[in-house]
Structure formats: structure tokens, C-alpha cells
Design goal:
about 170 residues, 3 helices, about 25% helix
Length: about 170
């Protein structure tokens, strides 16, 4: 996938990586999983610096058995002003939701417990979900395949009062 019909800032080449990534065919993406990064979101911040730090944290983390991440474990990030950042190739298999990793595109909004998405973040998420569900036939993920991380494994992510209301609203229930 090389183009979007919405504004997306491509930062894939600017984020730290360690070169141990796994790939899968783009057609294997059957669902869109929404996350929060579980990091407090201040009113103003440098999004690229935040994502570089998160990528380095994911590289340093032991994901089990000594396995280290290859960088930021989200394909897209959405910041407080609703800007959408393209962080990883959609063929990259990321470690963000256990058994759902092989079939998921991971979308993450900045924020955590005690916060709600900004109106701009909510609008950014809706734009991105619409784009991915309706403008990219190269993978079969549709509106009914949009889920919160907590719907595929035991976690609080993306929060009952944070991302889950947006996910349910997009799915239409």
C-alpha cells in the first residue's frame, strides 16, 4: 500500500528499528485493532519525539523468551491534534495483541487511564478507519472487523471510556 486519500504523515524511516521484524502478506490483514499507548498525553507535545521514545522502549522490552521488538509496535499513531502518523509497513507483523497479531493492523491513539480522546483524535481515528475499511481492497478488513485490543485478549486497552466507545460507534453498535 503506497497511497492514502486522507492526510497521513509517513514517519516509517524516522523511527528506531533493530532489524528483526517479521513480514506477512498484506492480504492477511483481516481486522483493525485500536489501542491506546497507556502513556499520559499532555496538552501539547512533540509527537515524533514521543513515537521515537516509544519505539525504543519496544525495542528494549523483553516480549517473552528474550525476544526484542523491532521498533514501534503500531502501524499507525494518532496524536492529540488528530494527525495520523504511518509508523510501520502494513506487511509488518507486530506484537501488539497476542494471537491476533498475524491478522491485524494496529492503530494507536495517544492517552491512558483518566483521559478521553480529544475531539481531533476521534475525528482522526474515524478518518483512518474509514480509509482502511473502504479505500483499500488489498486486504479484507471491513467496518465489522474494527475491534478494540481488549476484544481479542485480556487487557484494559483501549479503555472503556477512551477508545472502546469510538470503536463501537464506528462498527455501528
Amino acid at each position: 500500500m503506497s497511497s492514502f486519500q486522507i492526510k497521513v504523515t509517513d514517519i516509517r524511516s524516522q523511527l528506531p528499528r533493530n532489524g528483526t521484524y517479521l513480514r506477512r502478506p498484506i492480504s492477511s490483514n483481516k481486522q483493525l485493532l485500536c489501542h491506546w499507548d497507556a502513556v499520559w498525553r499532555p496538552a501539547a507535545y512533540n509527537s515524533l519525539a514521543r513515537y521515537k521514545n516509544e519505539a525504543q522502549e519496544h525495542i528494549n522490552r523483553d516480549w517473552g523468551g528474550g525476544a526484542r521488538g523491532d521498533g514501534l509496535m503500531y502501524h499507525f499513531k494518532i496524536d492529540n491534534v488528530g494527525e495520523i502518523f504511518w509508523c510501520r509497513d502494513l506487511e509488518d507483523l507486530l506484537w501488539a495483541a497476542g494471537p491476533a497479531n498475524a491478522t491485524s493492523i494496529h492503530i494507536c491513539m495517544d492517552g491512558t487511564v483518566g483521559q478521553t480522546p480529544t475531539a481531533a483524535q476521534a475525528a482522526g481515528l474515524n478518518r483512518l478507519l474509514y480509509e482502511l475499511c473502504y479505500k483499500h481492497p488489498e486486504f479484507p478488513a471491513g467496518r465489522g472487523n474494527v475491534k478494540g485490543h481488549k476484544e481479542v485478549m485480556a487487557t484494559q486497552c483501549p479503555g472503556d471510556s477512551f477508545g472502546m466507545p469510538l470503536v463501537r460507534a464506528f462498527r455501528g453498535f
